[in-house]
Structures are given as structure tokens and as C-alpha cells.
């Protein structure tokens, strides 16, 4: 387990790594008809690759990177035209599917092994989104992906031991996944097939620990902070324009029960940005949430769908995540309307984002590793050729504390 001295079996390691990716707020994001975080699959990939490397298999970090591209592509392409959230299923379903496929391959599974493992992964059904929405929003959303990726590793091992599969797991009338859980709709696979599209277009969470549909709203709020912070009692109305997906899943009014509830509320995140000019993980805790100025701002917010943002969000050539914020005061004056179409983690802002992403990486390394270890890991990761040739076991040893 990176950053610790724990040595675990692959199933438990997959859970721990998958959960740590989320708890440490270092996950990437994919937004389409379904959304999710393809980096969740690293739980299965890294655990299985380390397990095999320790058993003498000549796996290198290039193998890990190839597996990550494959998992990103499987999860992301399935998300392009299949909306599981619309039938109440959580996106970690796709983590289980992608991780099952890649883990089975890494373990040396045949095509039949892959089919058997994947059919069982689909038969598992899907976690409900209950824990992501009021009034039940809770901390399970931070370990649900770890659960999914560990379940995938278990299915992979079962298949390698000869566990049977189910040929019509998806399509069986009445009892298959499509009829039982997908309202009879067929799973759709885009004509583009599988390549490297998702990894090339994935979104990095860089500036703010915020649900991604609100990243640009927070950026707009931070821009407006100097104009608003000194006039909070005068704020009469705040208009937030967002995409349909953002309005559907993070437009929340009324009491917010806990940090997990707050980091999925566009009004709360925007209010913190207006009030403080920043947003950190600590801002979701009870001490900050008790500040009455946040509720003063939230009570005056109106969240509306901007159909242009919805269209561009779904446009494969853009994949924008636009938001706009404008604040109106009691005397009739108003701020400018600040619109941000692409968050800093978007492909269109790579030149701006990558240096900040690297700085975030190095800063987080130093919270767990010694200065010498941190510098060694940073140098290794900056050298693509050397990184690719590094045995997985050797790479994991850099992270032992």
C-alpha cells in the first residue's frame, strides 16, 4: 500500500488503493452521458501488477501505464452513450467492469476467462446512487470505487480458477442486466471503438477539491471574490448558470448534513469561493459550514441550466464543463458575469494546468515521504523512458514508509 508499510493481498490492496485515490482527492474525471473517475481502476491495476511482480513476473511500469490506458478507455467509452445515473445506478459500476477486464488480462487470463469474469461483474448489478444525493449523501462515495475495484480483482481470480460465466448476462430476457436494471435499454458501444481517446481527454482535478461539474463555478466565484467579499450584506441575488448534468446532481438547497453533502452542492462550493477567494478540503468541515455568511449567500442563489453549456458538455469535440456566476446587490448594481467554459484540468488548458498538477503531486509526496524519497520519485516520474522500464516492485518500494 503506497505511503505505508502495509503489505496486503491483491483484493484488499485494490480496495485500499482505490479508496486512497479518492480520500486524497487525486482522482481524474470523465464526463459524458455517464461520468466517473477512470483513475479509480488504479486500485486493481497497481495491486495486481505489484502482486505479479513480487512473484517474479517481469512487469514494468510501462505495463501499468498500458493497463491504465485500457481501463480508462473501457470505462470512458462505455460512459459516452450509456447513462447509468438516469436509472439510479452509480458510476462505480463501470470501474468494476473496466478493472475486471484489465485485471484478468494482467493475470494471464484467456479470452474465455475474460468473458467469464466480465459476465459475473455485470451480474453483480450496480450500487445505487443513494449515498451521493440528499438526504442520504455520505462518506460511502469516497470508498465505493475502492469496493468496485477490489470486487473486480476477486472476479479475475475466480475466473482464473475456472469459475463459469454467463453468456447472456446482459441480454437475457427478464433476468439480464438490461431488462432488470437498465429499463430494457441495450448497452450502446460508440462506432469509434477503443483506442486512447479517454486518456488523452481526461480531466485532472487540480485547483479545487470540488465535484467536477462545479469546478468552473468555483473558479468564477474566486474571480468575483474581490467584488463581493466586502459587500456580503448587500447581496440580493446570485445567478449560477450551469449544464443540465450539474443542475441535476449538485443543485442542492436546504440543510447539508456533512462534508460529503457539501462537496456535492454547487451553491455551497460557489459560496465559499465568493467568501474566501479559494476552496480547500477543510472548507467542507463543520467549522466552516457553521459560518452564517455561507447560508446567507446560498439562500440568494438561483441555479439555472444554460442550454449552450449542456450542448457543449456533450459535444465530443469540446467536452466543456461551463458555468457562469453573476452577483446582484440590493442597490441595483451587479458584478460582471464571469463565465468559465473549461476548467484548468481540461485538455484545452493543458499548458496552464500541467505545471500546477506536478506541483500538487510533489506537494502531496512530501506529506508522506522523506525529502530524498520525494525527490527520487519526482525525478523518476519526470523521465518517461526510465519510468517505463522500472519494474513494478521496484517502483512500489519507493513509496514504503
Search tags:
19 helices, 401 residues, alpha+beta, 3-stranded antiparallel sheet, 4-stranded mixed sheet
The neighbouring-strand order within the major sheet is: 5-4-6-7
Rg from alpha-carbon coordinates: 22 Å
Distance between the termini: 10 Å
Q: How do the helices and strands follow one another from N- to C-terminus?
A: HEEHHHHHHHEHEHHHHHEHEEHHHH
Helix vs. strand class: alpha+beta
Fraction in helix: 40-55%
Structure annotation, total helices: 19
- Outline, from the CA principal axes? globular
Give the strand content. 5-15%
Q: Biggest sheet, in brief?
A: 4 strands, mixed
Strand segment tally: 7
Ranges where pLDDT stays below 50 over 5 or more residues in a row are: none
Instruction: Kindly report the average pLDDT value.
Output: 95
Task: Describe the protein's topology.
Blueprint (H helix, E strand, L loop, with lengths): L9 H14 L4 E4 L3 E2 L5 H13 L6 H21 L10 H15 L4 H13 L20 H17 L16 H5 L15 H5 L1 E2 L10 H14 L6 E8 L1 H7 L8 H4 L3 H11 L9 H4 L2 H7 L2 E5 L1 H8 L8 E7 L8 E3 L9 H16 L5 H12 L1 H6 L2 H6 L4
Parallel strand pairs: 4-5
Antiparallel strand pairs: 1-2, 1-3, 4-6, 6-7
Helix pairs in contact: 1-2, 1-6, 2-3, 2-4, 2-6, 3-4, 4-5, 4-6, 5-6, 9-12, 12-14
